[in-house]
Task: structure prediction
Amino acid sequence: MRVAIIGYGKMGHEIEKVLIERGHEAVLKIDIDNRQEMMTKEHFEGVDVAIEFTSPLTAADNIRECLLLGVPVLSGSTGWLERKAEIDALCQKQGGAFFYSSNYSLGVNVLFRLNRWLSKVMATLPQYNVKIEEMHHIHKLDAPSGTAATLAEEMRVASDGRLSVAKEEIISYREGECPGIHTITFDSEEDTLSVSHSAKSRRGLALGAVLAAEWLVGRKGVFSMDDFLSI
Result:
């Protein structure tokens, strides 16, 4: 694949390493300093897919530009989802391809599925109180994390509203260079049940993103990790 990396920070560099390991080429490396110059049809000629990891302030516009340029785009940016319906509609209108996940770690996506199942069971046991905690590095701009927000929303949906954790009720920590820890805890007077995922590095996110990008090439529509993991 010929890939455009949009957001060439620590995550972008990790994605580039995985791309090279898997025989792909990062033909464009776009960051805040060269975005205006590089986001053109001429520069994206021959690009198979764009992988976008930037900030809540720029993500939606970056994705929009890729779709208008006719380039499939995968995004892992969080904190911008108030515009996702707009982006999904544009993707469908353009006949393009857009893949979004708040977290590309394969282990975290197993946690998402476990969370949905567990939420259905725990909703029948009112003696348990639920809590979501997340920890990330001090450079992460959004709090709570997109992953924690996804866990809370999926919990609400899976339990038909009987379990609910609002964003402001999620406990967020920012410490050092922690790549990400997410913990769901159900607590009662009798016992405590916890499920947790702890990332060891950014590589797990990068690998999942590259695998999803490989899957996205040649497809049309709006996709998520559920689509990818169902194949």
Residues 166 and 200 are 27 Å apart (CA to CA). The chain has a mean pLDDT of 95. Strands lie at 2-6, 25-30, 49-52, 73-75, 97-100, 129-136, 171-174, 181-187, 192-198, 221-223.
